[in-house]
Specification:
Length: 346
């Protein structure tokens, strides 16, 4: 186990370069969870809508969903080139959920394109395929998080925990998707999205609360980091702010139906932004729990890192690629700002 009082010399490239790449990987994965999270959430909610509403839901994510997955590719790519030892262990241990995640993402990609060209009698199949792909990918990602937290242990207790995190992520993505639709749509679909969000926010809050309680119980390392003194006082703002954000979302959602009836959308953006805040806090709490390990109690970032010379060379490439991804992401959201309109295929 790493003694944090004996960290590597952070003035040397071998000390600070792994930290830089860990931060870059964390940014990539956080961006993926938030950006692809809302379009996965839209897919999860798809079966609850009418046929016309399904088309508008797909239109709301059409310009973004494919580019959102770029962040997943970047994050895994950084893990591969910067921490190859950890990459081999993590993807080896998570082989099955990773395979299911890829199957889900492939189903989504195929269904997205084919549903636009399908005849009416076949469109229902592709809608269900898009929904199934979204659910499978989300459950797999949640299970991956669960197994990662418990150090890839596969006894009954830890398998149940991983499945539980999968269903919690399902509720979280559904909340992201519903609040996205509140911002991006109008009319009956927008009103339905408010109802979906009202149900999802309760499930998401219960899920995060349960994971916050269970996670320290299944990992002594995490328990010590959160509940030793003075850490418990210094970290108290994270659960407090998270609770406040849930309350804000709930109160706004309760008032939105009356406001929308008066064509007042002044606060329709707040639930989505608040949900992003919850994901941001949850991600940072998890990052704190795991740091400096890439595999809890087995492999820290310095042990897993590539040679400093390799990291220096890779950093040049990342310095070119990352601004490009950020740039076209901002451009896409700027160009397609405002309410979604029906997709046209030529």
């Amino acid at each position: 186990m790493l003694n944090l009082t004996q960290l590597p010399d952070l003035t040397q490239p071998s000390g600070w370069l792994p930290l830089v790449f860990l931060a870059l990987m964390a940014i990539s994965m956080l961006a993926y969870v938030i950006l692809d999270g809302f379009d996965l959430g839209v897919g999860i909610l798809l079966r609850r809508a009418t046929d016309d509403q399904k088309d508008m839901m797909i239109a709301s994510i059409g310009p973004f969903w494919d580019a959102n997955e770029t962040w997943l590719v970047l994050g895994i790519g950084i893990l591969l080139v910067a921490f190859p030892v950890a990459h081999g262990i993590i993807l080896g241990e998570l082989y099955l959920p990773v395979a299911f995640m890829l199957i889900g993402l492939i189903l989504r990609g195929v269904a997205f394109d084919f549903r636009a060209k399908a005849r009416d009698e076949h469109k229902t199949i592709w809608n269900w395929t898009f929904y199934a792909g979204s659910v499978i990918a989300t459950l797999a990602q949640g299970a991956m998080i669960g197994f990662y937290i418990v150090g890839f242990q596969h006894d009954t207790r830890h398998i149940l925990f991983a499945l539980f995190t999968g269903f919690c992520l399902l509720a979280g993505y559904a909340l992201l998707g519903a609040t996205w639709l509140i911002m991006k749509t109008e009319g009956d679909l927008q009103k339905k999205a408010v109802t979906w969000a009202q149900g999802s926010v309760i499930l998401c809050a219960l899920g995060i609360a349960a994971i916050s309680v269970v996670t320290p119980m299944v990992s002594p390392h995490i328990f010590n980091k959160w509940f030793s003194f003075p850490n418990i006082l210094l970290l108290a703002p994270i659960p407090i702010i998270t609770s406040v954000l849930f309350i804000v979302i709930y109160k706004v959602l309760m008032r939105l139906p009356a406001q929308l009836a008066e064509n007042n959308e002044a606060w329709s953006w707040l639930p989505f932004v608040s949900t992003i805040g919850i994901f941001f806090l949850a991600f940072n709490g998890l990052a704190y729990s795991l740091f400096p390990y890439l595999i809890i109690d087995r492999l820290d970032i310095w042990q897993a890192a590539s040679a400093p010379e390799s990291l220096t060379f890779i950093l040049v490439g990342v310095a070119i690629v990352l601004p490009a991804i950020i740039g076209y992401t901002i451009l896409a959201y700027r160009v397609f700002w405002g309410k979604a309109t029906a997709l046209n295929y030529f």
